[in-house]
Amino acid sequence: MHFPTRIDGPAADRGLAGGTPPGDEALDAYSRTVSEVAERLGPSVANLRVERRTRRGRRGAGGGSAFAITADGYMLTSAHVVAAGSGVIASFADGREARADVVGTDALSDLAVVRAAIDAAEPAALGEAGRLRVGQLVVAIGSPLGLSGSVTAGVVSALGRSLPAGQGSPGRLIENVIQTDAALNPGNSGGALADGLGRVVGVNTAVAGIGLGLAVPIDAGTRRIIGSLMREGRVRRAYLGIAGGSGPLPPKIAAELDREVACSVIEVIEGSPADRAGFTSGDLIVELDGEPVRAAGDLQRLMVAERIGRELAVELVRAGTIRTVAVTPVELSS
Questions:
Q1: Is position 282 within any domain?
Q2: Secondary structure percentages of the chain, helix, strand, coil, to 5
Q3: Is 315 part of any domain?
Q4: Total domains, the chain
Q5: Within 10 Å of residue 11's Cβ, how many Cβ atoms?
Q6: Other residues' Cβ atoms within 10 Å of the Cβ of residue 135
Q7: In-domain check, residue 280
Q8: Has 110 been annotated as catalytic?
Q9: Which of the following is catalytic: 80, 150, 264, 283?
């Protein structure tokens, strides 16, 4: 699945974030960058009004934001924005309004794809969150408190944060979350977080406090999720049945593997693939299917659809020695 990544036109010629004429004040350069990002990305961002069907008809159940990712109406938003609704209305900055269908949601990444009944003015270009640096300028566009087309700016405050996933998924985390001080409020969820070139690098998802906003990163994993939601309406994941964390390796094993930590098995779910394979609490998982594992997040990222029903070799440390265990994941039930 391919999404727009190219920046064309006059804004690209100016470089958006660069090319400051001699003598301009720093504030002017900052303002120009934010304004140009808003001009480029604003038409792609929509205000979502979510309706809930009741015995008395439809009534408002909340709202949020979304942004177009294809020219034919597909938009990306947060799963929690559309989860409670039976109908969605999308409103664009140019005044156009249309109903939108929920194509698919994924509570474990807090991402959803909806499709509006009208074409987008211009799909947003997707960037790469892995290239961000702490202190880098970011611009948030969305509909806080229903005020569509609102623009705020700030910096990347931190990278690599973790955010608890959707309800009913204890221990599941959304990894590599972006922390920003760009002002976010209720209604910003599902909106775009862009870099200084107008490329979307995150999906605004939570307000953790004043000056503390969080965004799901746009990266290779996110692109896979978006593609699955567009094709199948859901995301398939493999399941082992382990609750774990990060634990220290014995010194001898740590020296042998040239690392200090592994995924420590805290609990094995009864009747799960891990239980049937003989995993026990206290095992330290160091590798799965040839991929190194240092924490529960690594194990979680490796549980992709391609590994469902396939026997995998797992290297683990038990009683001070490395041993290999075979396990066959099943599909994670929704």
A1: yes
A2: 20, 40, 40
A3: yes
A4: 1
A5: 15
A6: 8
A7: yes
A8: yes
A9: 80
Q: How many CB atoms lie within 10 A of CB 69?
A: 24
Q: Could you list the residue range(s) of the whole structural domain that residue 292 is in?
A: 238-331
Residue 294, sorted as left (phi over 0), alpha (psi -120 to 50) or beta, turns out to be: alpha
Nearest Cα to Cα of residue 175 among 286, 78, 298, 292: 298
Which one, of 241, 232, 260, 270, lies nearest residue 317 by Cα?
A: 260
The three-state secondary structure class of 273 is: helix
Residue 18 has pLDDT above 80, yes or no: no
Residue 181 lies in a domain: no
Catalytic entry in 189, 195, 264, 298: 189
Range 147-176 average pLDDT? 80
Task: Give the Cα separation of 286 and 313 in Å (integer).
Answer: 11
Q: How confident is the model at residue 2 (pLDDT cuts 50, 70, 90)?
A: low
Q: In the chain, how long is the greatest CA-to-CA distance? A: 70
* Residue 123: how many other CB atoms lie within 10 Å: 21
151 and 195 Cβ atoms separated by less than 8 Å: no
Annotated catalytic residue 80: yes
Q: From the candidates 44, 78, 110, 148, which is the catalytic residue?
A: 110
Residue 240 has pLDDT above 50, yes or no: yes
User: Global pTM?
Assistant: 0.80
DSSP-based three-state secondary structure for 269: coil
- Six-digit token pair at 85? 């609704």
CATH number of 276's domain: 2.30.42.10
DSSP 20: P
Give per-residue pLDDT as tens, 28-70. 888 999 999 999 999 999 999 988 776 666 666 678 999 999 9
Residue 2: active-site member: no
